Amino acid sequence: MKLDGIRILDLSLFLPGPYMTQMMADHGAEVIKLEPVNGGEPNREIGEKRDGVTVYFANTNRNKRSIQLNLKKPEGLAAALDLAASCDVFVEAFRPGVTKRLGLGYEAVKARNPGIVYVSMSAWGQDGPYVTKPAHDLATEAITGVLSITRGADGKPAIPGMAGADMVSSMMTLSAVLMALLRRKDTGAGDYIDVAMADSLFAAVPNNLSTTFAEKRAPDLDHERALGGYAMYEIYETSDARHVVLGGSEIHFAEAILDKLGRPDLLALCRPPPGPHQNPVKDFLRETFLTRPQAEWVEFFEGVNAAFAPVNNLREAADNVQLRHRKMIVEDDRGWEHVGIPMKFLLEPGEAKFTFAAVGEHTEQVLGELGRDAETIAKMKFDGVF
Questions:
Q1: Domain 233-306 classified CATH 3.30.1540.10?
Q2: Which end of the chain is less crowded, N or C, counting CB atoms within 10 A of the terminal residue's CB?
Q3: Could you read off the pLDDT of 104-143 as tens digits, one per residue?
């Protein structure tokens, strides 16, 4: 597979880092997860479990080995540095400065391994006035303005259904790691990568910054093309309190929809620019969609050349024929469902291996690979190193 031979030491927790390293594991990388000694990866206990394994953990930590080391003990730190010296990539997502205080900062690891690609993931980055400010995904969505353009039916900011900052920063980090590994092939030198959730999230809205940059003001969502200004780019409620979307504002889509609904006279109002002049079309669509249940509208629009879709719940999405065909929901021998691999290679495709390490399961094995003998390992365990 693409990443065969790449070894990763992963100290990250929760979602962004673990998902990123899982993607690498799916494509052949060896991932060793170094978990805290005071309980391990928090997402082992978040949400529903299947045979003692949370769905959250299974979707972010498959096919990894797990070790625990007390980094405040000299023997634990020494073992972690030895392990880092054997790796290609080092991933951490503590608050800035923590790994340096522990003795596992970039300079310490680089001194042992000049070719290391060392990754620091954080909410705000490794510098700036917010560097010590605590935050999870929602706070970065608030500060970057993304939450202000994510509105509920009441027009007020709403919690997004996806952890956007976590997931976008995860993919940004994956891209950065692969760039650094590619460059290392020519230079032999590693690199230090500083990825902030806030930076990644703000970089993900270039299509919604026109008013902000061109007119130096906050956008009025009713005038924005992808935020509510177009009648044909909107969410509509159906008679059974479900919803459908029209997701394409191009005029040929509008023509197909209005022809199907018997109102071609409204087509002129659907032309650019977006804005309140399209409200009569919105009012018509809002009233019309409320006359039938969602399933009937799905049947009604079958075969129509329009970007129409029902708003599925997550169970419906997991059963969706397209996602199933693309193997984005896969089942293991136990019948457990898992998120599949989104990157589809013709040659050397990824492989999801559904093994889930118990916390610290491989500590003694990895210490042995680092050259510690059985007596030393037993003493380390007795001394509370793991």
A1: yes
A2: N
A3: 999 999 999 999 999 999 999 999 999 999 999 999 999 9
